[in-house]
Amino acid sequence: MAGNRGVVYLGPNKVEVQDIDDPKFEDPHGRKIEHAVILKVVSTNICGSDQHMVRGRTTAPAGLVLGHEITGEVIEAGADVEMLKKGDIVSVPFNVACGRCRTCKSGDTGVCLHVNDSRAGGAYGYVDMGGWIGGQARYVTVPYADFNLLKFPDRDQALAKIRDLTMLSDILPTGFHGAIKAGVGVGSVAYVAGAGPVGLAAAASCQILGAAVTMIGDFNAERLAHAEKMGFVPVDLSKHDRLGEMIAEVVGVPEVDAAIDAVGFEARGHSGGEQPAIVLNQMMEITRAAGSIGIPGLYVTEDPGAVDEAAKVGSLSLRLGLGWAKAQSFHTGQTPVLRYNRQLMMAILHGRLPIADIVNAKIISLDEAPSGYQNFDKGAAVKYVLDPHDMLRAA
């Protein structure tokens, strides 16, 4: 390894690319581990979840190395790693999971009970998720490698499709999980709240699952224009605050079979001010009786910048009685990436899911990460992909 560098959170609205420690075969407590690999990072993406931290909307500490969307090349393997070797190109689920606890064995790897001392679930480079060092860097350690990593079957094929395959670490499985939990299937009428990268991935998932109509709502005109270009029906939320009426203009009735919240806790209302529960309440209003709502959008337990004291501890004003009366189903939480990433990889490799174009992937260098964060925060209709070793541009 020729010197590691990574994207470091320094405080609200400030990130910087700095020299960081080279990865070691250690867990966050400094204990030696042999079930890990060290990766040369091929690609690593800026995520909306990262943006919440960078805005200062979490309790993330200064000095945190960011990045949980990682694709890499194995350059060193621990003594206990049996199924991976040097040179393998792999996708890293953003979930850190041990593969041995009760939840991992049931496939719920988003809430592993072993990798985080403070709560269920671990992730790389994220607040309160176990202290695992992030992968917006040149090199990174990945534990429990045999269990966690998805090896691409052919190196040359993987590098040729790397813009698409980099989305397997988080946003594509997250969008797919939202669509699955919303009950999307053949002939469904679906609505996705939020036309950012996760929302676009959810909309793409609705299409591949057979939805008859996939609507996507946002205030951002640039993002809506891109969504329409990709074949989704845009819903311009700036027109008025009656979402059901806008849906009726598309499908004839003010309801949908399936709804997906890809916005999360920083949601804004028609007036422009923050209303952290507005999307959830809208989902209950527009989803049909006995319909389902998938909630891949992030909701946090601590939000220092919330609009009121209740929201600062994740307590939102939900009209739950409406959802109960309509017998609706809700599903929240971290996506268990391993449940979906292999089949989504196959869809990509065989030309069924051009996800990089759908989310408008833009490749930038690692050193350009701070400007990427700034532009993404302004609502740029792109998904920034960092290229730490110039391998993507070469491919």
TrEMBL record:
Keyword check for Disulfide bond, yes or no: no
Keyword Transferase recorded: no
Q: Which Gene3D superfamilies match?
A: Medium-chain alcohol dehydrogenases, catalytic domain, NAD(P)-binding Rossmann-like Domain
Alphabetically list the UniProt keywords.
Metal-binding, NAD, Oxidoreductase, Zinc
Q: Which residues form the Alcohol dehydrogenase-like N-terminal domain?
A: 35-153
Select a single GO molecular function from the record's annotations and give it.
zinc ion binding
Q: Name one Pfam family in it.
A: ADH_N
Q: What is the top-level taxon of the source organism? A: Bacteria
Q: Which InterPro entries match?
A: ADH-like_N, ADH_Zn_CS, GroES-like_sf, HCHO_DH_non_GSH, NAD(P)-bd_dom_sf
**Would you tell me the protein name for this molecule?**
Formaldehyde dehydrogenase, glutathione-independent
Species of origin reads Plantimonas leprariae
Organism lineage: Bacteria, Pseudomonadati, Pseudomonadota, Alphaproteobacteria, Hyphomicrobiales
